[in-house]
Amino acid sequence: MTGAAQTPKLMAVAMVLFALGLLAVIAIFAMFALGRHDLPLWLNLAAGVLIPAGMALGLFSAIRQARQRR
Questions:
Q1: Which domain holds residue 49?
Q2: Is residue 21 within 8 Å of residue 51, measured between CB atoms?
Q3: Sign, CA torsion 33/34/36/40
């Protein structure tokens, strides 16, 4: 990468996955606050999978980028 302002593509994907997971968590809390208790399975899976996947991919991308700079 030529500039420090550029975000590697892998990190951008990680941020999108993490953001989608956070949106799922916010939706779960909003639906629960509105009185819904039978939440869809896909929403629970999205919250439980996307956040850790985004964090793991972001960590992998950061470590990879740091090793490339050496």
A1: 9-69
A2: yes
A3: negative
Asked if residue 4 is part of any domain, the answer here is no
pLDDT (tens digit per residue) in 18-59: 999 999 999 999 999 999 988 899 999 999 999 999 999 999
Q: Note the pTM of the prediction, 2 decimals.
A: 0.81
Instruction: Say how far apart CA 24 and CA 44 lie, in whole Å.
Output: 8
Number of domains in the chain: 1
Q: Which distant-in-sequence residues (6+ apart) come within 8 Å of 65 by Cβ?
A: 8, 11
d(CA 54, CA 18): 5
* Token pair recorded at residue 35: 């009185």
Spatial contact of 20 and 51, defined as CB atoms under 8 Å apart: no
Q: Cβ contacts of residue 34 below 8 Å, gap of 6+? A: none
